[in-house]
Amino acid sequence: MDLLSIKDPVFLKKFSNKELEVLAQEIREFLIGKLSVTGGHLGPNLGVVELTLVLHQLFNSPKDKFLWDVGHQAYVHKILTGRADQFDKLRQYQGLCGFPKRSESEHDVWETGHSSTSLSAAMGMALARDLKGTEETIIPVIGDGALTGGMALEALNHIGHEQTDMIVILNDNEMSIAPNVGAINTMLGRMRTAGKYQRAKDDLEMLIKKIPAFGGRLAATAERVKDSLKYLLVSGMFFEELGFTYLGPVDGHDLEDLKSNMTYARKTKGPVLIHVITKKGKGYAPAENDAKGTWHGLGPYKIESGEVVTKPGPPSYSGVFANTLKRLAREDDRIVAITAAMPGGTKLDSFAAEFPNRMFDVGIAEQHATTMAAGLATQGMKPVFAVYSTFLQRGYDQLVHDVCRQNLNVFFAIDRAGLVGADGETHQGVFDISYLRHLPNMTILNPKDENELQHMIYTATKYEDGPIAVRYPRGGGAGLKMDSELKEIPIGQWEVLREGSDLAILTFGTMIPVALEAAERLSSQGIHVEVVNARSIKPLDEIMLNKLTKEEKPIMTIEEAALLGGFGSAVLEYLNENNARSIIMERLGIPDRYIEHGSVPQLLEEIGLTSENVVARIQQMLPKKRKRA
Prior knowledge:
Structural class: alpha/beta
Number of strands: 17
Largest sheet: 7 strands, mixed
Shape: globular
Strand order of the largest sheet: 7-6-8-9-11-10-15
């Protein structure tokens, strides 16, 4: 079948199982071919081909609502809803989004990117349906990894209590990004081997009904016998106790098994959970055999060999962080590392290999991770929570209430700070400065390069005056020679990288090369710009700011972070509080909107964080100087 010709999923209604099997193979070949060029979330999508086909055959999207959680497994859904012709630009600038996107299609009813939100959203949609008196079916598809998130468990509790009509698909592939951890994962493992619980329960019910009712004792005990069967067949029948009808385990690659269970679920009142077992990477051996999560989401690869195409380069910031932490942990047994289901992305898998008893993967549970770190700190340990900027948002109340309020020595290693590129607006790490800076007791640092990062890691582990965050970007460093001896970076002290008398650029991290390049170009026009590595975002370097205000030197701040409430705002606040309102000041940063997917250079160009724009803005700030030059 020509997948590019698909406009909507209605055509599936007439397909036989044999035709669906052929189509499933064609979809897998399409995905393997397209993603070998663009990269993307291959493993999750190869695992849900049959599941997605059956959903679209039996139900009527967009009237019936499919909510994909986390959303990276929605590529097959996108193909079946008329977007196959856009896969050449998957996750590329102004191209097809890698997650569900409401503006892309009426079939995308809920946008995801962060885990564990589908059940709460589905409950909201189901309540709206019931209040309006309509009849659509609400179907959240949630992965077993996403189920470890506390928000999902809160929603299960409420849905079961209300007995709301809904079909929950538990897509169980035993992995989120990395292999799943925790007691819920262990429970699901027992369920995978437990056999067809609901079918056996129904067979017993039919058998009981055929027995002549010769006395009240049998009638009174029949229901109790039937319910007790779940404890016999499925150890720890968690979902039934929450009020769900549990169906499964179901073979997620057996079309007839999927159809019969979904048909049964459709007829069942109240919430139903279908436990579907899928194979991540199904149909492509390198992805099927992946035990580490490499094929969850990746860049281009060679189809024949499964070799991932990598470009040689300097070590990643994440790698420098992990290696430095290991070095320090060898000398300080108080250091413990924490991740929320991201041991590979944060590079803490190497820490776990060396210190298995001092590394804790809590699953997709940033709230728990943050407060657990606080608990460790109360007992004199040095907890280091390595977390992507975008995911730390999920532990915000715990930051405020449990860490900062108690002024506990928790070290937040904030990975993927700044723009991340292809994963788009749900993953851009641009808000952390704004949501951390106003918290009392919090210290925020950002290195100019990977060498300074290792010194900041050292500084943060030695810091004893409360919570501290070190933020660093995705990707590789500059390839600098690394100092062999670690040293503490003075907190609240900046570094002048280039002298200049006409204007000062205050910036940090990835924007330092932009500032230095702009300063070099302006020097040929007779404009002399000072460039400052403002590596201590909080506290500010008040000595240097006092010096700049006394010199009445114009100031420009540049940050690869949100402007509202960001570093530039902090400098403005300082000028206002110190009666230096006459200082000419300009702020550059992420504007007040969500930044979509694309390469980081393309996104920086779009929002004006380039040396060319810095030059132009400084020329506007210093018109007389430009004229003289």
